[in-house]
């Protein structure tokens, strides 16, 4: 068998539209896609969606400990990215609760804003090893299955305010032929561009926040080779595509005397974003690429629909969850759209006409992290992932959060009811488990991702409470 050539980092970022890398799926691209999916998954793992919490809608973890707490890296391995900043969003109109969630507490941290993602930058050692410094932008998707689809307004909205050069008024014959200006679905634009003066987190829109951070990072590393990678799943995928277009369209990637910074979006299960004219303008930007990982039976990528004038954006990697022998014959559309399921299939994808065969050391246990898609004989419980004690720990007087971003928020409980901060002395709080089990729980997902056998056994033992097996004689 001939040796597989190694593509350059530029080719992995789509400089040649991933030609020759998708069929069959190149090992390095496979690894990169799954890594991008894990960065997406981190946005779900850190997001507090319990409406009993005063901090519902916030990130559970702070920036400094973010990647450690979401187990992006195996124990003892230093992260090769550091979170630079968090992104927050609001909306000028009502949007579904599955995207902007509000706490039921009268003391909610914010009634106008939700944590929507993060910006991270590769470390010095990683930049040296990779040949460039990467700026990563991860957008959060929905957390409540597919209910948002019935609520969002599919109306197209002009993005004239995002265009660097305005479109000239259409000729009379253009109107007769049905030609239009670049438009994007109203829901995407609303979340991306809305601000709210009442909130300290969204006095500026997610768009303005992102632009500020990107400019700051580009200025800081102006003498280095740079790349920008955007990732997102579901609605987060739509925001990744829209913000990637916006960054390039408005010149944030241009540098005097140097080639433009390449921008690549790796998205999963993305709905359609814009009309034909948007896609055409998108494709005219030479340093902007999108790779869309799409499950053949997933319904979400067909929304809002071609009948309403929408088109798909970018290059597609079409996969099919029905190829995996580990998955049930599920009729649940949420399973077809599940991010961890897509990453599992990517890990074993050999092409439409080839048998599924896992190529990476990635545990199948991760599939059931938030669903029940694995076959029963895999012996993995459904929806097994939950933050320990739902984020509650015990201190001397009260329950408080395990982590917070001290530079933005005060210490707060991430779970519990409206009166957590005023519990009477002696009132019950969740109790701490023994320290060894806590350590195992925190590193569990990292083991699952890096060692399927060890991770799976750990999960079984923890769930069956066989604590004696964790103690050494």
Describe the model:
- This protein has helices spanning 9-12, 27-46, 66-69, 124-130, 172-176, 186-193, 206-220, 235-249, 276-283, 333-337, 339-348, 435-450, 452-463, and strands spanning 81-89, 114-122, 133-139, 156-158, 183-185, 226-233, 263-268, 274-275, 288-295, 310-311, 315-319, 392-394, 399-401.
- It is an alpha/beta fold and 473 residues long.
- A 7-stranded mixed beta sheet has the order 1-2-3-6-7-9-11, sandwiched between helices. Strands 4-5 form a two-stranded antiparallel sheet.
- Strand 12 (392-394) and strand 13 form a beta hairpin.
- The model is unreliable at 401-443 and 464-473 (pLDDT under 50).
What secondary-structure arrangement, pairings included, does this model have?
Layout: H1 9-12, H2 27-46, H3 66-69, E1 81-89, E2 114-122, H4 124-130, E3 133-139, E4 156-158, H5 172-176, E5 183-185, H6 186-193, H7 206-220, E6 226-233, H8 235-249, E7 263-268, E8 274-275, H9 276-283, E9 288-295, E10 310-311, E11 315-319, H10 333-337, H11 339-348, E12 392-394, E13 399-401, H12 435-450, H13 452-463
Parallel strand pairs: 3-6, 6-7, 7-9, 9-11
Antiparallel strand pairs: 1-2, 2-3, 4-5, 8-10, 12-13
